[in-house]
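Recall from the previous lesson that a structure prediction takes nothing but the amino acid sequence as input. Here we apply that procedure to BMP family ABC transporter substrate-binding protein from Geothermobacter hydrogeniphilus. The sequence below is the only information supplied.
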Amino acid sequence: MKVTTRFAFCIVFLALALTGCNKQEEAASTKTAEKPAPQAAEKQVKAGFVYVGPVGDGGWTYAHDQGRKAMEKLPFVEPSIFLESVHEGAEATRAITGLVNKGCNLVFTTSFGFMDATLEVAKKHPDTVFMHCSGYKTADNVGTYFGRMYQPRYLSGIIAGKMTKSNVIGYVGAFPIPEVIRGINAFALGVRSVNPKAVVKVVWTQTWFDPGVERDAADSLLDVGADVLTMHQDAPATLQAAEARGAYVIGYNSDMRKFAPNSFLTAPVWNWGALYTKVAAEVKDGTWKSRQIWWGMDKDLVRLAPLSDKVPADVKALVKEKTAAIVAGTLKPFAGPISDQDGKEVVAAGAVIADADLLGMNYFVAGVQGTIPK
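The prediction returns the following tokens.
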């Protein structure tokens, strides 16, 4: 009898327990149904950047970093990673590999000297997209990108040609590679289009970023009578030299007027955000394909910084007119006739230098004084 009673009690207790469990499960199920489903993660692109200089250089690397920040505003882009002052060679290879290992599915390498390292790492990581700045080698997962900086260089040359009184204009150049030579030539063509008597003197520094060396080069040009300076360098040292000596100066990479408030005229500048946001969107959408991007002023990748009040109104009007013509495609800075510095015709009248020849340019045009080291 005791056993039967105990058994009956257990059955009743078990039934009550199961009823309670079912009610708890129903309540939990109702709660879950009422709670909104978690949103799918919007941020799907994690980008890494390899910089050749410090982000505080005020020039090349600073401009790239501004583009990185613009890209990060996209809702699907995670906080990016950047590595600054990376040397070419083995250090670059380690830096790029490190970004992939940290989960970057998009890597930008922002200097010509990183080209081979980019290809080497990309071969081992086929699922990562790599974009190399200013190079010419591609692969299935490697594209290249650059801008037609020669367009605003030409416009800045017009300003220099109009502003010089001595007809001697100084140009501080980094390395004698086609990118730099092309910019010098475009600038000189702009100068000579409005002032055929002016010459552009070139001094090489063999460095992208060394303020002391750049300052010495700028001073050497001022010592031989240059009253307008410009440069293809990353530091603002050329601007500071011009400011100290009372010469006009045209910057590069970013709007550097704060370094030469009394001397600054303008600067050909980069707007990397226009390109970085486009590439990130393609990676997110799965539409990215390896290609060589070379955008100009029509895509707003390159432009002139606002002209200072030192530039007369008639010169501003001329530059505005020529800018519109370049954007429209009716003015091409490298249209013939063009002669080299020895007087030999390199582009006939009515012809335009092909992109392939621009990318491999290795001579100076008429009006440039200086040599290209072999």
